[in-house]
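S., here's the first fold you wanted:
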Amino acid sequence: MKPDGVLFDAAGTLFDLVPPIHDVIASTAARHGHPCAPARVERALDHVGGTLGWPDDESDSAGRTRAWTVFVRRIIDEVDLPAPDAALGEISEEAAATILEPANYQVFPDVAPLVQRLRAADIRMGIVSNFDDLLFDILDHTRLGTSFATILTSYRTGFSKPDPRIFHLAARAIGTDPAATHYVGDSVYSDMGGAHAAGLHGILIDRDDKHSTYSGERIVSLMDLRLDLDR
């Protein structure tokens, strides 16, 4: 069925940090003379993010830098990098600064063609993201912001995915009924869990094929999105 609107997650769905966070941390450590396998950092990132949580939304760049520096340091501690405390602090600060630089984010190549298809079919579009105002800097840099009528963040709404309220706010903002709205995101928990709880049609984008056993609708590229736009 052709949807009235399509909402998207942001990071991991429309754009991503290049290189990814675990590579940023590993390469930063190596530049400081403390090499570490990116795969070890990736495992530590998944564990820290999954157990202690990702950095909270912050109201300004200084707070954001502090939060991400602490987060990176937790990852480094998980890796148990053998380096002096001062060096670990420098690595954490430098890696956090790289992660928070909007110029280091790139749009996935399948985004522009899909946006053009949706525009041509007169489908309303929006973004729903667990992000603070850094998102708007990234959208400005990547020139994605003008493609979406609505951009809702956890920081500005006070609701974080998978809370269904942020999805309902987004559907209302683009003027669609949740049942006639698709949501595309890369997280089974926050994106698919929240979209389904809110009554939207959730579509998991699994670019790295990490969720092959997911039972719902799953795609590996936005070009695989089946929207029946010609009906």
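And the second, which I think is the more interesting of the pair:
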Amino acid sequence: MEKANRFLRQAEEMYAMQYWDLAANRYYYACYHAVQGLFIAYGLPAAKKHSGAVTQFSLHFVKSGRIELTYGSFFARMMQLRQKADYNCAYDITEKDLMEQVNISRNFICKIEQLIKDISV
């Protein structure tokens, strides 16, 4: 979770500087590392691929009802947005692409932190 929060701070900095592609990357990776931390906390193996992280998250946390369905689809959308930002030379991420994702990213990470705290109580 330390890495997730560090990447979230980096995302906020990139967003403030209007580096949309970099912000999309950092927001996604903040969420990705939070999900990997969740897997570790629950004794699940870390995902080896990004698509595997999305699938495993959906299987163990969304379908089980531990986390809302909207967060499952959000995580998948963030992965796609990050792929566009990193690999699609013909597409530039815009502020509009990120506006909705910013608050959801913060809430997503908070929700995961709460799930981790709940198992240690």
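Why I say that: The CA atoms of residues 6 and 30 lie 8 Å apart. The radius of gyration is 14 Å.

Talk tomorrow,
H.
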